[in-house]
Structures are given as C-alpha cells and as structure tokens.
Amino acid sequence: MRWAPDARGRLERAAFDLFGEQGYAATTVPQITARAGLTTRTFFRYFADKREVIFGGDEIPRAAARLISEAPPELEPIDVIRLVLDEVAATRFDGRREETAAWRRMINADDSLRDRDARKRADLVAAARTAFVDRGEAQRSATIFAETGALIFHVALDAWLAEPEARPMGDTIAEIMTWVCVRRLEGTPLGS
Amino acid sequence: MRWAPDARGRLERAAFDLFGEQGYAATTVPQITARAGLTTRTFFRYFADKREVIFGGDEIPRAAARLISEAPPELEPIDVIRLVLDEVAATRFDGRREETAAWRRMINADDSLRDRDARKRADLVAAARTAFVDRGEAQRSATIFAETGALIFHVALDAWLAEPEARPMGDTIAEIMTWVCVRRLEGTPLGS
DNA sequence: GTCTATATCGCGATAGAC
DNA sequence: GTCTATCGCGATATAGAC
C-alpha cells in the first residue's frame, strides 16, 4: 500500500520521543515528521499546531460531558462532580502517576504549553457547563458547578502528583472535596 | 529629543486601532509599528509577543497580590476575597462596561487570545496563592482560596457584562458569592 | 538594528481506496 | 469515477539570535 497506516499515531510517538530526547522547544516539526516518515504539511493536517500533539484534542472535554450526561438524574450537582471525578481518576490516572508527572513537568517547563494547558481547562469548563445545562441547571449555576469541578480536579491532580506515596487519586479528590462546598441558591432571596 | 516619548503607549494605541479596524489576526506587527513610527524589533522589546499588547503584562496579578497582602490580617480568607474583588470591581471595571465588553469580545474571537487569557487567569491564581501563603495559609488552602477567588471573579465578570442594565459590578459579585462557600478544614479529621 | 529560523497555512497534483 | 489522504512547493509572519 502507498501509505503506512496510523499516520497520527506515528506522529504522536515521534513527537513524544523527540520531546523526551531534546525537549519540546528544541524539537521542530520537520524533525518530528522526518522521524515519522511524513511531510511537514501532513503534521498540520492532524494537529492544529505543534502544541496540540501534547494534549488529546477535545477528548477530555467530550468524556467529561458524557459522564455528566450519563449520571443519574436525581443526583445533586456536587455528587455528579464527585462521581465524574472518581471515574476519571480511576480510569485515566490511577497506575499512571509517573507518566502523568512527566507529562505535567513537560507542560510546566514551556510557556506556550502552559498557555495551551490553561486553555484546555477553560474548554473543559465550557463542555461541563453545557452538560449541566442539559441536566436542567440554570446557566449561572451550571457555570459555577462546572468551574468548581475543574477547580477540584486540578487542585487534586497537583496534590496527588506531589504526594510522596502513590495512592488512589480518588482519595486525594475526596480530601479536596471536603474543602469546597457549593450550594444551589437560585431563586432564594439575596443574603439568605 | 531623539525619540518621541511613550513608545509603549503609542504601540498599544496603534495596535488597538488596527485590531478594531481589521481584526486581531489580520493585523501584523509591522503594521502596528509602522503606524506607531517604530521598528518591529522595538515592538518585541516592549511586548513578549503579539498577544501581550492585549493584556496588561503582570499588572493584574501584582495588584491582586498587593491587595491580599494589605487586607487586615484578622479577616477570614473568604472575606479577603470579597474585599479584593470589590476593590477591583470599583476601581477597574465600574464605568467601563462597554470597553470591557469590547475587550472580551476581541479575546473570545481569537483562539490564540483565548489561550493567553486562560493563562493569565492561571498566573493570577498563582500570585494570589503566594499572597495567601504569606498570610499564613497552608499551601493547599491557599491554592483553593486563590482558585475560588478567580472563579468568582470570572463568573461575575461574565455575568456583569451580560446584564441588560449597567450596575455596580460589586452587586454581581455579591450575588455570585452567595453561591460559593469555602470552608477551612485543614487539620480536622477527614469526613468531619 | 539586522538577519534568519521555524511555525503555519494555501494551493494544486497525485495515488490509492471504495 | 469519486473521495480522501498525502505530497511538494511556496508564501508570510512571528519571534529569537547575533
């Protein structure tokens, strides 16, 4: 056949290998595509820019939105957050602490990656907000719940990665959640 | 004198004018510097990149950190947040709703500006966290208070700009704050 | 200040899949 | 045949090096 399969996967692997060897900034797109046996132009067909190789496109916002939609309708929003975060922690982070820490180190070492990382969090909030609205939340409460979920998750991820001993990330999340409480007050008089 | 004064201000004004006329993405740095009567190189001496003309450098994180440090030491963190946000609202936003809305529209219209905007929020959180630590908060609680302050501020700003009638931004902030509560639980047994 | 590398993207051609 | 992935070439702006 004319093209080797899985061009996207080859680009991702070549990129991560090179980033590991030389660092993110020192690696050029032509180097990545040369290693993957493709052209520079092809890289930009799969990834909007060089930063996007690091982040999984919109996979995370989509997964979060799906989990929120599928949560039992009778759950309070804060319990939806708990459910979603526990699921995410168990399936995507437990057992991958070292890889995750290395990934975070790479992001934190580069300014343009920190920009994009912050943007990804905003995208996650936007997707979660929509999902909460679909559950019947008002715009404003949906926004606050989405923001709060992202807050808990990011604080917990940082804390979990900083802990001396590996333990289930859900434990860290539970600790953070005891700290933050969000009350639904829509419609109640101000100051109540 | 050899150089016309206020190169930075001229660059900012030229940039905003051109962004208004042609849009952000369609405006090149050489166009900006030509209008300001300066060279491209000079632009990058004042601004790290093209996006930074839009944001005020690290002025906002610095101001927030200063306000947190100067708040009366006996205040609870959530009341420090209230104080700081009210001050910021009154001095920087009240009476500038239209400019602020236009500024937000410009940011939301461009992907690279959304990246940077999200990053600026992260920088603000980092500065506020440090300031809370200086007040004697533990790392983890400082992080949560800083994140919560940023959350309230951003939700309130969005809401305030979306309101049909202009009113003091502090009123919107007060409404949002009745929604979000943060408890200091460091040192208490888990599950309490 | 000048020079240059590199990211980024548009366009037309082409090769194989269905 | 049409559709899609890929290529090759080129143009331009940002951003950093010298």
Structure commentary:
Two copies of one chain form a homodimer. With 192 residues, chain A is mainly α. The first copy, chain A, is built from nine helices and one strand; from the N terminus they run αααααααααβ. In chain A, α1 (7-22) crosses α2, α5 (77-93) runs parallel beside α8 and α5 (77-93) runs antiparallel to α9. Chain A folds into two domains: 7-53, Homeodomain-like (Arc Repressor Mutant, subunit A), CATH 1.10.10.60; 59-177, Tetracycline Repressor, domain 2 (Orthogonal Bundle), CATH 1.10.357. Chain A is globular. The interface between A and B is medium-sized, with 33 and 33 residues. β1 of chain A pairs antiparallel with β1 of chain B, so a sheet runs across the interface.
Structure described in brief:
Chain A is mostly helical. Chain A contains nine helices and one strand.
Total helices of chain A: the number is 9
Could you say what the CATH architecture of the largest domain in chain A is?
A: Orthogonal Bundle
Largest interface: A-B, 33 and 33 residues
CATH superfamily of the largest domain in chain A: Tetracycline Repressor, domain 2
Low-confidence stretches of chain A: none
Order of helices and strands of chain A: HHHHHHHHHE
What is Rg of chain A? Answer: 19 Å
CATH topology of the largest domain in chain A: Tetracycline Repressor, domain 2
Oligomer: homodimer
User: What's the mean pLDDT score of chain A?
Assistant: 91
Q: What is the distance, rounded to the nearest whole angstrom, between the alpha carbons of the first and last residues of chain A?
A: 70 Å
Protein structure class of chain A: mainly alpha
> Into which percent range does the helicity of residues of chain A fall?
55-70%
- Provide the β-strand percentage band of chain A: under 5%
Q: Specify the biggest β-sheet of chain A.
A: none
